[in-house]
Amino acid sequence: MNYLVFDVGGSAIKYSLMNDSLEMIEKGSEKTPKDSLENFKKVIKSIYEKYKDNIDGIAMSLPGLINRKTNKMQIPGALEYNFGVDILSELKSVTTDRFTIENDAKCAALCEVTYGSLKGTSVGAVCIIGTGIGGGVTIGDNVLTGSNGFAGEFSYFSTNWRDYEGFNSKWAVENSSFTLISMVAKEKGLEAKELDGIKVFEFCNNGDEAALKALSEYCDILAMGLWNIQATVDPEKIAIGGGISRQPILMEYINKSLDKVYSKMPIPIPRVQIVNCKFFNDSNLIGALANYKKVYK
């Protein structure tokens, strides 16, 4: 059986024709329309038309939060025109009724618990570091959605409980990949626009003291977020994803920061295991398909 699977991002719509063995028979991408829902629907429809005679249905990973009670997009993420829209019904209207949509980070979590680093865990969590902090909590082989679909939205964790103004002191702001770039730039006396993630990790991997100081401070904040996840759901493992998670030195420094957290506790707290996500950039596609197969068993 073949399926058309989408991973929608703020800049690109990745898609793949996939089968039950998770083989990506064909892959492609289109620019994500920035202007309107109608143009977004046109792109999805045009891709569907190429494959409609050869698929069982469509699975999609999408940024934002679809409220489980209203079926409407409550948090649109990068696609602001989706706010308040029953996006599943809108897309079904131009494609097929056999269509599933899940939040992108929850797709990553479902991928990892079904096929990847969290497979076999009773409780797990995924933390995706990107423009924010995507997340998901897994119970058995399911992803916890919560009563409204908001469970696992780690971006909204507070890093300072006395500061409740909007996105001030929220984990998405404190620990995005862009924050690390800014912290390294500041330590080195540079403008953030002069750096990117590749350059930052070149500095770190070459032992640059200023860059490593920034990485250590960044991971200290990250470790407290991971600690809060552990205190909330007590996972066996937390799988770290996102582009920067491919850097072994990041995982090394995360564990150094966690060492400090655990060593300062006056009682022995069970330590969570930190692992990499297995599927990296393909996790959203694979998780979207896993979600489809749960719905259409």
Give a structural overview.
This protein starts with a strand and ends with a helix. A five-stranded mixed β-sheet has the order 3-2-1-4-7, with helices on both faces. It has a five-stranded mixed β-sheet with strand order 10-9-8-11-12, sandwiched between helices. It is α/β, with parallel strands linked by helices. A hairpin with a 6-residue loop joins strand 5 and strand 6 (73-75). It contains nine helices and twelve strands. It is globular, with a radius of gyration of 20 Å. The protein has two domains: 2-107 and 282-295, ATPase, nucleotide binding domain (Nucleotidyltransferase, domain 5); 119-277, 2-Layer Sandwich (Nucleotidyltransferase, domain 5), CATH 3.30.420.40.
Helix content percent band: 25-40%
* Rg from alpha-carbon coordinates: 20 Å
Largest sheet data: 5 strands, mixed
Distance between the termini: 13 Å
Computed structural class: alpha/beta
Number of helices: 9
Task: List the secondary-structure elements in sequence, H or E.
Answer: EEEHEEEHEHEEEHHHHEHEH
What is the H level of CATH, i.e. the homologous superfamily of the largest domain? ATPase, nucleotide binding domain
Residue fraction in strands:
15-25%
Model regions low in confidence, pLDDT < 50 over at least 5 residues = none
Annotation keywords:
297 residues, alpha/beta, Nucleotidyltransferase, domain 5, 2 domains, five-stranded mixed sheet, 9 helices, 12 strands, 38% helix, 21% strand
